[in-house]
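Late entry, magnesium ion complex.
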Amino acid sequence: MLLLFRNTGTAMCMLLEAFRDMPFMLSRRHRHDVLHQQFLTAIKSLGVITVVALFTGMILALQTGLELRRFGQEVYIGSAVTVVMLREMGPFMTALIIAASVGSAMAAQIGTMTVSEEIAALEVMAIKPVRYLVTPRLLAMIMMMPLVTIYTNIIGVVGGAVVGHTQLGVSITAYMDNATQFAENKDLYVGLLKSILFGIIIATVACHQGFATTQGAVGVGQATRRTVVVSFLVILTVGYMVTRLFYQ
Amino acid sequence: MIRFEHVHKRLGGRVVLDDISFEIEAGETFVIVGASGAGKSVSLKHMVRLLTPDAGRVMVGDACVSQARGERLDHIRERFGFLFQSAALLQWLTVGDNVGLPLRMKTDLSDDEVDRQVRDRLAMVNLQDAFEKLPGELSGGMRKRVGLARAIITDPEIILYDEPTSGLDPVTSRTIDRLINRLRSELGVTSVVVTHDLHSALAIGSRIAMLHDGKMVEIATPDDFVRSRNEFIQGFLEAQYITTQGNWGQTPEAS
Amino acid sequence: MKRSQLRDISMEVMVGAFMFMILLALGFFTIILSYENIFRQYHEVTVKFDHVSGLRQGDNVFLRGVMIGRVRSLIVENDRVEVTASLQRPVNMREGYRIEIIPSSVLGGQYLSIDEGPPDAPALPEDTVLYGRPPVDLIDEATSAVQAVRQSLDEGEVLHNLEAIMAQVNTITHQLSAGEGTLGRLLMEDEVYNELAQVTTNLRTVSEQLSTGQGTLGRLLMEDDVYNELEQLTANLRSVSEQMSTGQGTLGKLIADDELYEEAQLLMREVRAAIDDFRETAPITTFTSIFFGAF
Ligand SMILES: Nc1ncnc2c1ncn2[C@@H]1O[C@H](COP(=O)(O)OP(=O)(O)O)[C@@H](O)[C@H]1O
Ligand SMILES: [Mg+2]
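Prediction complete; structure with ligand written out below:
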């Protein structure tokens, strides 16, 4: 318990320091490090995100569609899929995938650096490891998570439309009409707010676990595993709280 | 220049440094020898506060590095160059970017100027051609030389070398020795060198210290060191076929 | 050109292209999802309600069953709620308009229903403040109706009640048709007279149907919906008739008092509407609207 508090404390300190150093890393000379992280966060994950988002949308459409068909209301899959994607599944699925792929990679990379004295080398060069390593990752997450989430939403809604069209006989226009009737801008933007929070969570947990790595390769493995577990848990709780806050 | 005052350190449940006190003079090359696991790297890390003593303190000039924080610690650290045992290069950066990293993060020098200085340092360690390579594409010895180039890029007053020649072929080892000597004679750099290699130690050291069982069992000039009565030193010397005959402590020719 | 620079440029292009595309999509979605369409003109209607029963921003607005817009905002005032709706077409309210909040399903969700009023009624001026009718809580209604039914079935009093009401209704109708002297002034006006005559015949029809319809009632009782409505009607009629029959003195006052006269006129209309509605088995909401509206 004490350990939990302490870890949370150090993670928060690290987060604050990373926020403070944002202007530095955004200066012309260091922008490129941020860009590199953006590339890793977003572009490299697009493949797996596409597949997952497509099937999430398809599954949502199929399951709700089969239920709704009993009442002859298949056309409501448009709103069901869109609202669920925008509010919950989009940000949530994106966060899980990014945590599992990008987050764990971050933890592994920083963990390896810790055990191979690279972090120590940065410290001796008086280069703040948080500024140099955490800030660009945090910035990239904050900027790219919402964008990737929008992408997930689009792909998910398209997936739903495809299933609606082929399996449930709901025309694309009926699907879109229904979707736009019930989905609100609030759904979209609350979802995006969530995704930004999730991005901050992933970057913080991954970097914190990376820095806390001890004991060589075994430690790196542990840091990676913990990153995924801890970020999932925090994402779930924070996701619930945000939903609670905006949809009482 | 660097003064250990009654430094105690426990690590992993055993005493690594046990009440150690010694002083390194400005401009000298202080060599620390000792068996693996004797605590040589640990003592180096105390000088830049990668480790903090359990008791006692480490002074760098007038500043107590063991209690410095934040800005002041950064200022002390900026006086040092540190060559890590494992070189500790950032794997995703090219050799050129690795060596130039301190300049790009800490100074406002233009990219061209950084480039020029990086090439200059790489030439000093005979690695002009490696500029565009990634650390993963280099051999262990080459990596260590890149680490050395990075350690000297900011023209530090003090350079700490953790086993600069281990794993290197004898010819390259001597090149490194010559480089250490050149930095000292031309730029007046204070050097602390950790090594197992007594040939190297005797060739570059102005003083040699033997670390054993958490204590400095001997601190002596190379000439006195080889004649030491201490049985551990005797064992060390014999293991490397070094006799008390011959004239040690002479600088090899600068190339 | 250095290897790392080439890599950077391709990275920049990819990240930039991705951001650009996604932001474009975001703008597009924002426009689609917002209720306002910047290219279309909207007409606003403001209605005041006593109570909106959970109507929400974005709920649909129907004009005689056709979706014509959405609820834009709900502003709580001192003792009312001002509902603003954006409509795709202008609506011209006439006298006798109805604006209601209707539950769209038993599970919740509301829509705003607008009825402009009878086609031949005079149009209201533009700046008229529109008032909506109080909404019905479907579940509450259903529950209380079911409970009342259960109770009266248990006590076997339904028929007695109905009979009692019929007696009262008969009394009223007799009083009305015979009461030439008492309601002299009322009957001077043709419109009121006609209405009264209408009410009388309607009531008579109802009571006839009910008293002869021993078998019909039996059948009615099998169907829950109709039964509930009947039960509700019974209750409503009872209170109406009770008040009217005890109000022999009140009727007397009617002759002297203009305000009460006006109210009586309204009451007549409501009663007639109720009976009409009952004959067409219209939604139970009408009955409650009499109940609240008339008294
Ligand atoms: N971070 C650490 N945690 C626990 N034990 C350590 C740590 N660093 C070093 N040690 C221990 O301290 C002793 C000295 O290590 P070191 O100074 O690296 O040896 P060497 O003289 O070969 O450089 C070793 O026994 C090592 O196990
Ligand atoms: Mg060592």
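The radius of gyration of chain A is 20 Å. Will revisit in the morning.
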